[in-house]
Amino acid sequence: MILSELSYEQKPLENGYNNRTLYLNLSRNEIKIKPVSQLMKDKFIGGKGFDLWLMWNSLPKDRIVKWNDPENEICIASGPLSGTNFIPGSGKSIVTTVSPLTGAIIDSNVGSYFGPFLKYSGFDAIEIQGKAKDEVVMVVDGENHQVRIEKAESASQYAHELTQELTTKYAGNGTPVEKNRVSVVSSGLGAKHTNWGMLNFSWYPIHRKWASYKQAGRGGIGTVFKDKNIQALVCLSPEKPQHDVGAADKDFARNSGGEHNKEIITYDPKQNQMRQIGTGHLPVIMNEYDLLPTENFRYGRHKTYLVENEKEFPYSWDVWKKIMTEEKGLSSCWRGCTISCSHFSPNHTVLTGPFKGQIVSVDGPEYETIAGCGSNWGVWDPKWILEVNFYCDTYGLDTISVGTGIAFVMECYEAGILNKDITGGLELTFGNAEAALQLIHQMARGTGFGLIVGKGIRQMKTYFVENYGADPQFLQDIGMEHKGLEVSEYMTKESIAQQGGYGFALKGPQHDEAWLIFEDMVRKSIPTFEDKANALCWFPFFRTWFGLNGLCKLPWNDVQPPDNKDNPIKDEKGELYRARIPKHVQFYADYATGITGIPTTPQDIVKKSEIVYNFQRIFNIRQGHGLRKDDENFPYRGMGPVTKLEYESRQERYDTQLKEMLGIDPKNKSTEEKMQILRKYREEQYAKLQAVVYQKRGWSKQGCPTIEKVKLLGIDFKDVLKIIQPHQ
């Protein structure tokens, strides 16, 4: 049954834009088209920028909007550079909403065909508001130029089945070629019963004959989706889409794209082999540098694995190559991306739950899933990674929050805070993957201890104190969440740069904003305190730019030209940052110039991103978040050793630091005394870094962008000034 329908005229793309967005209100079954203003393009570019601007103007301004208010929105946008088939990684879109975990604006970057298909169908963004009375499917039909809100038909509640059903339903004659034109956004039962819901964004690789998906995972976006009573969002691409996206100078952009693609094909096999195993190449590297989260971030590596490979690492490159061995041809989550990191395991036999015994395909696994639901649980068997990956996808659960959240529960169990009576018989010790899976099944059903766990670490900490008499300081120290969002999977004890990257991030501790762990601890490109503070300014701005333009960051950062070390780049202050990969930054400046027709330099990339970055900070302040108090209280487990066990496992390291950094002889001091001294120092360093970074970003001591800064950025709108004036 069609509840509402709107026909529209298809217009050609111009310089990467349709110059219009799509608005749907599910409470009123309303569909309308909004124009894109020049201000939107000049200041907010696209992607996350468009999402934020649409939400800023649609959410009520006289009160804080809660995640489950009908007025809350889900916005999805790609960007002017997305949808081409000659720029590597140009299939991304960004989803934003008010998060059920943080109460602030969450954004999540996701691959798949949906963003480009929406763009080909005539819209730069889609904005969804209200709540449906009955479950609905929203359809953007780019072939017939129609937008519909339909009453959902009976279908599977499991995402891996629902996606196949809807792909077939909206694929015309149902051939693989027709299915390749359909992208489905969906979630699952876990999103309905937890705060960890995510969204699956699909595409149909013809050689797989199965719809695969990528995830907009962070912050509970899928939970909002289910709360709005949405079964799915579907986009059907026109049969003959505009692949050049109306580029001002296609050849100019294409030439840089050709060189970039050639570089990836040449050097990836010698560097990370992402074209074979995707981000599965990272665990072995993180383990080698003592950066792989193990047993709720207590340790940084497998206990018995040695760098010299005396014992085979359970998550080595060879292991993942064997698991993904039946992949036929390279596969990318968007056409033309030569990174082609979207691998899968085609024959996993399900071990638990409602699909036990069935043979299924599992997309991934990605690094975050391997680390979060593997090493961080003390689980070292790939079959359990595939099991968790499959069920989190089909239940609509974020594997990062699930991984970090259950790791926290496991440590609480081993510390005696929890027991079998509390967990309903589940022995949630480190290494017990089967018990963890049972907890995930409970989350999906909305039953048992899973209901408590699925609320997130922040709420669990309060609940455990009030109901089980837990020590609140201990829970604060080991509960790896910040601002309400679970920490993604990197050990930060020895990297104050990544501590700031997590702690000062706008939405909470997610690596996509400031992934400095590699620069700091592996490449060692930011050795001094000043280097780290500077990186925490320009690095988030630069990474923001990818989310404004619909691009993946992997082609920029994960395959480097061999001569990168010989090509330093200077910022406007003359400071050197090789980490930017100057040759690649020039590629991206050329892409922007060629597509939009606006001459763009590497310096312009950072300047334009700084506008949106500061605007999002102000939006969070409007939501009652985003000031200094939110950036403080980073869990100490992310700064240093919380327990004697941790300290003594790295005693030589920590004792040496006391001697060399503080001039303190640890010889006659107890472990507890040494821990206390080290903690005081590290917390002071974090506070110092916070103050320095605020100043460099042009923020007040309270963490608010100054009036001078917003004027300089050209976003000194009346409603912006009203919000920031009390916090100067």
* Overall spatial form: globular
How many β-strands, per DSSP?
17
Structural class category: alpha+beta
CATH architecture group name of the domain at 2-236: 4-Layer Sandwich
Helix content: 40-55%
Give the number of helices. 31
Major sheet size, sense and barrel closure: 7 strands, mixed
> What is the CA–CA distance across the termini?
53 Å
Radius of gyration over all CA atoms, rounded: 24 Å
Give me the side-by-side strand order of the main sheet: 1-9-8-13-10-11-12
Q: Which parts are unreliable, with pLDDT below 50 for 5 consecutive residues or more?
A: none
Oligomer: single chain
What does the average pLDDT come to?
A: 93
Instruction: Bin the strand percentage.
Output: 5-15%
Name the CATH homologous superfamily of the domain at 2-236: Aldehyde ferredoxin oxidoreductase, N-terminal domain
**Would you give the CATH topology of the domain at 2-236?**
Aldehyde Ferredoxin Oxidoreductase,  A, domain 1
CATH class call of the domain at 2-236: Alpha Beta
Summarize the SSE layout with pairings.
Blueprint: E1 2-7, E2 20-25, E3 30-35, H1 38-44, H2 47-58, E4 73-77, E5 93-98, E6 105-110, H3 114-120, E7 125-129, E8 136-141, E9 146-151, H4 159-169, H5 176-179, E10 182-186, H6 189-193, E11 199-203, E12 212-216, H7 221-227, E13 230-236, H8 250-267, H9 274-277, H10 282-288, H11 317-323, E14 344-349, E15 359-363, H12 367-373, H13 382-395, H14 399-414, H15 420-423, H16 433-445, H17 448-453, H18 457-468, H19 472-478, E16 481-482, E17 485-486, H20 496-503, H21 517-522, H22 529-549, H23 554-557, H24 582-596, H25 602-622, H26 628-631, H27 644-649, H28 651-662, H29 671-697, H30 707-713, H31 718-724
Parallel strand pairs: 2-7, 8-13
Antiparallel strand pairs: 1-9, 2-3, 4-5, 4-7, 5-6, 8-9, 10-11, 10-13, 11-12, 14-15, 16-17
Helix pairs in contact: 1-2, 2-22, 2-25, 8-24, 12-14, 13-16, 20-22, 22-25, 22-29, 28-29
